[in-house]
Amino acid sequence: MSALLVFALFAVTFIALAVFYLFFYQNWRRKRRLKQPFPDAWRRELENSVPLYRNLSADLKHQLEQHVQLFLAEKTFYGCDGFDVDDRVRITIAGHACLLILARPFREYDEVRSILVYPDVYRVRAPERDGMVVSVSEQIRAGEASSLGQVVLAWSECEEGAMNPEGAHNVILHEFAHQLDYLDGSADGAPPLYGRQAEAWQHTMTRAYEDLRHSLQHHHQGWLDPYGATQPAEFFAVLTEAFYQQPQYLKDTQPAVYAVLCDYYRLDPMHLNLSRTMT
Question: Which of 69-83, 105-119, 127-141, 224-238 has the lowest mean pLDDT?
Fold first, then answer.
């Protein structure tokens, strides 16, 4: 066999392997993982720590379990300040995070690499700009998301949100909504949208955001947590919390916003039915 033929065979094999790895390996690996049974202990933990799980249909429970299974296999958890990340912590966070993609493809979390968990709210030093003057202030945070695929959470806040499923706040839902927002490259309050869906989102969300800001500026009671009025990215994250935790209230006060979120998440929390098939 000539050296040229050997080189050609090597090149073809290399290209074939590269194509497989880039376009097929991830799906193959995930299908293989999902052939493993979902542990009963994890299922019991979902029932205890993700209250909405108990209300899901059998098909949606299975879908959430599969997302959680992939999430736990692919994302790395780190305990900070000596915090021990056990199965309860991992499944509580994974379960709530995967509610956001329950009717969406798991690949929307491909960019999420790691979850850092503090035992309680934590302090960070953050720069602040006032014109040409830049200063550094110390802030207390319950969570934050990064476009680099990192999510930071305070477990005490995660636990409180998980145990109060009808409350106004859930830091896990909030920070993972930011991750969906980052999918188009920037946190601008709108995840990747196209065509009619993008037009409806732009029209509805812009009007609702300005309405909230106007109400607060005139010292009226806002229909949403005032933090949602700080910027469009926070508006989307706070709305996501309300959508899953207080759907009846959001539907009553902002039916158009609720409808747009149902269309995006492909799920109606009031009925727990898919609004359209997953693509």
Answer: 127-141
Question: What radius of gyration, in Å, describes the C-alpha atoms of the chain?
Answer: 21
Q: Are 232 and 190 in contact (CB under 8 A)?
A: yes
Tokens of 255: 């039916």
Question: Chain centroid to CA 124: how far?
Answer: 22
Q: Domains in the chain, start-ordered, CATH in brackets?
A: 40-274 (3.40.390.10)
3-state SS, residue 242: helix
* pLDDT tens, position by position, 94-132: 999 999 999 999 999 999 999 999 999 998 877 766 666
Q: Please count the helices (runs of H) and the strands (runs of E) in the chain.
A: 11, 8
CA distance 70 to 64: 10
Reading the block at residue 78, the tokens are 């780190």
**Nearest C-alpha neighbor of 33 from the set 62, 66, 59, 61:** 66
pTM of the complete model: 0.85
pLDDT at 137 over 50: yes
Q: Could you tell me how many residues make up the chain?
A: 279
